[in-house]
Each structure stands twice: as structure tokens, then as C-alpha cells.
Design brief:
By secondary structure, this protein is mainly alpha-helical. Helix 9 (237-249) packs across helix 10 (253-274). The chain has 16 helices and three strands. It is elongated. The termini are far apart.
Length: 397
């Protein structure tokens, strides 16, 4: 499979650019026909090109600075020259230098962005192409800066919510390892010398402590192998599909993920559709940014339904993994003729709900982790206190 970079016209005669995987040129043309696109320019993309991928804050900053310069009357060539001279990290600076060179040679900003391989999201490239075609590039850059800032803020809140449980889990493991490997062996050595029958829980703890003291490196190797194997297994398409489906079924977490995916869907679709990208192409691009293979696998049918004349609200209702309030909101937008505006307000509402759900998740996880730590400490204390109590009784204390 090769990656074909293309510039094409959609059914509304608007320019769209992107990258598709195709076996050969004939396969590429069939893909274009299936998407109702007429390619005006295409070529096989160099796989080694553009290995650096901009992070959401960097994408937002790029859009914000570019919008500021374009609104001041600065040309795209001069804007890229200014950006490449600023104090960015070397790999990002290299991206801007290549873009400046491409723009100087007569390419549009969207085409120059596409030349950087994975550097810029496909969504942003298509939005820039649409903005250039409509003469609204300044507005598009401002809109996308806000889009990526919101996306980064929401992702940051989720990551911060999960950071505390991860730190607490690591702390529990470290404390237990120290107790079992360094503290308990000395105490249990004394108990072994006494001619008393130890309780079952104490014998189990002693066995675990002895094994960890002697073979801790085996446990470490097993854990590392487990991490590597898990990552490999999750990279398999069928496993990833099943895993992403399972995530949506989890209590509390599943509901939070549905809200996040729905907010992402609504925000991206509104940005694309509101900028002149055809609905079918907008849905295809939106599928790639959902970050859930199970939901993404349902989008080809969604595209088929919409292409066959079915209303978007009715088609979205069939998607398993998006919040069930979304189709009704889309229906209102379709009936009022303000679908893009309705999608924007819906995305904002879901962003707020996601922040609230994230806070609720933290409030749930914290006491659970504390209870787990308390149970572990209680088991260790019982393994110590029970034999001590029996010793006191045998001495008549």
C-alpha cells in the first residue's frame, strides 16, 4: 500500500486535499470516485517525509499566530518566514522552514502543510484548503485555534484526572514492595525460630515475602513482558476493535468516554461543514479523529446512509458509542437550517458535561484507591498481630 497525496474538487466544486492509502493508481481513482471527488493533482507521498507530529497546543499556537499576522495584512510567505525565525524547538522549526520554502515556490499553505507528512492533522489541512478557496483563511485559522485549544483542555483534564490514581497505585506498589522485601523478612525470621503454628494469612505473607526477596527480578521481567505483550496485542485490529467497544460498556468510565467522543464528533463536524467541506467528506474526516476504532468502524455505513439520502440525524442515531441526545440536537439543526451552529453549541455543552463527568470520576476513583491501600495494610497488620496475640496467650500474658 502506498500513500497518495491529492488535491481534488468535491460535488460543491470546493477544493479538498488529503492522503489516502491505495494499492496502485487505479485503486486510488476508485477511492476518489467513491468519495465523489475529482482529483486535480496527486502523487505518491514519500514515507520518510515529515516524521514530527505537532501536538495540539503547538497546532493551536500555529493557528493563532498565523491568524494574527494574516489579519494584519502580512502575506502567507512573510508569515511563514516570521514563524521559522522564532525560537521553537529544532524539529518544529524544521517543519516551518520547509513550509516557508514550499510557499515561496508558489504552493498554498494547505499544500505546504500536506507536504510535511504527519506534521499537521488532516482536519486542519482540509480546513485551510477550504479557507483559501473561500477567501476566509483568517477566520478559519481563528476557528481552528479555538478548536484545538478546547481539544487540548479537555484531554488535559482527563489526563490530570487519571494522574492521581496512577500516582497512588505506584505508591501502593512501592510501599508494599518495601514492606515485603526489607521490613517483614526480619520480623518473620524471628517468628520462624519460634515453635508455634502460624495462622494461614501469616504463612501466605511469609511465602510471598520470601519469594519477592529471592526472585524480585523475575517479577520485574514478567511485568515488563506483560506491558510489551499488552501493547502488541492491543495494536491488532480485531483486538483493538473489541477493546474500544469494551471501554464504552464500562460503568462510569464508559459514559464519560461517550460524552468526550460526542463532543469531538460535534465540534469537528461543525468546523468542517461550516467551512464548506461536503457533508460526506466531513464525516469521513471526523471518523479519523474520534480515537475509538469501534465507533470509527461504523462510519462507512453512516456515509452510505447519508449518500443515499437519509437524514444525518437518523443516520447518527444508529451509531453505537455516541450520546443518544446527539441525534435529536442534529434534527433540530436540520429543521431550522442551522446545523453547523447547532453542532457548535452542542459541542460546547458536551465539553462542559465531560469536565463534570471527569470530576465525578476522580471523586469515585480516589476513595476506591484509598480503600485498596487500607485493605493491603490491614492484611499485613493481621499477619503480624495474629501470631503476636497467640504468643502472648502461650506465655500466659
Amino acid at each position: 500500500m502506498a500513500k497518495y497525496q491529492f488535491t481534488a474538487l468535491n460535488i460543491n466544486n470546493n477544493k479538498e486535499i488529503g492522503i489516502v492509502d491505495a494499492r496502485d493508481e487505479d485503486h486510488f481513482r476508485r477511492i476518489m470516485r467513491g468519495r465523489e471527488l475529482v482529483p486535480t493533482k496527486y502523487k505518491v507521498l514519500d514515507e520518510k517525509l515529515g516524521s514530527y507530529k505537532l501536538k495540539p497546543p503547538e497546532v493551536a499556537e500555529f493557528c493563532r499566530q498565523l491568524a494574527s499576522m494574516l489579519s494584519s495584512g502580512i502575506t502567507a510567505v512573510r508569515a511563514m518566514e516570521i514563524l521559522k525565525e522564532r525560537d521553537f524547538k529544532p524539529r518544529l522549526k524544521s517543519v516551518y522552514e520547509k513550509m516557508h520554502k514550499d510557499v515561496q515556490q508558489g504552493q498554498s499553505l494547505s499544500e505546504a502543510m500536506l507536504q510535511q507528512g504527519k506534521a499537521f492533522p488532516v482536519l486542519l489541512i482540509n480546513m485551510f484548503a477550504s479557507g483559501e478557496a473561500s477567501g476566509q483563511l483568517e477566520n478559519v485559522t481563528n476557528k481552528m485555534a479555538i478548536h484545538y485549544e478546547k481539544e487540548h483542555r479537555l484531554n488535559g483534564k482527563v489526563q490530570n484526572a487519571m494522574r492521581y490514581p496512577k500516582i497512588l497505585a505506584v505508591a501502593v506498589l512501592v510501599v508494599v514492595a518495601i514492606i515485603f522485601i526489607f521490613v517483614m523478612p526480619n520480623f518473620f525470621g524471628m517468628l520462624k525460630e519460634l515453635d508455634v503454628e502460624l495462622p494461614l494469612i501469616t504463612r501466605i505473607i511469609i511465602a510471598m515475602s520470601d519469594w519477592l526477596t529471592s526472585y524480585w527480578y523475575i517479577l520485574l521481567i514478567v511485568l515488563l513482558c506483560l506491558i510489551v505483550v499488552t501493547q502488541y496485542v492491543l495494536s491488532l485490529p480485531k483486538v483493538r476493535l473489541a477493546f474500544d467497544k469494551l471501554k464504552l460498556r464500562l460503568p462510569v468510565i464508559g459514559k464519560l468516554l461517550k460524552i468526550i467522543y460526542t463532543a469531538r464528533f460535534a465540534r469537528t463536524l461543525s468546523s468542517l461543514y461550516g467551512s464548506g467541506v461536503s457533508m460526506l467528506r466531513a464525516i469521513e474526516i471526523t471518523a479519523t479523529i474520534i480515537s475509538n476504532k469501534y465507533i470509527e468502524s461504523q462510519f462507512p455505513q453512516l456515509v452510505t446512509d447519508v449518500r443515499n439520502g437519509e437524514a444525518l440525524s437518523a443516520s447518527v442515531r444508529k451509531i453505537d458509542g455516541l450520546d443518544n441526545k446527539l441525534p435529536n440536537t442534529i434534527l433540530i439543526g436540520e429543521e431550522s437550517g442551522r446545523l453547523d451552529a447547532m453542532l457548535v453549541s452542542t459541542a460546547d455543552a458536551y465539553d462542559y458535561e465531560a469536565e463534570q463527568a471527569t470530576g465525578a470520576l476522580v471523586e469515585l476513583v480516589q476513595p476506591v484507591m484509598i480503600v485498596v491501600m487500607a485493605l493491603i495494610i490491614m492484611l499485613v497488620l493481621l499477619s503480624v498481630m495474629l501470631p503476636m496475640a497467640e504468643l502472648y496467650q502461650s506465655f500466659g500474658v
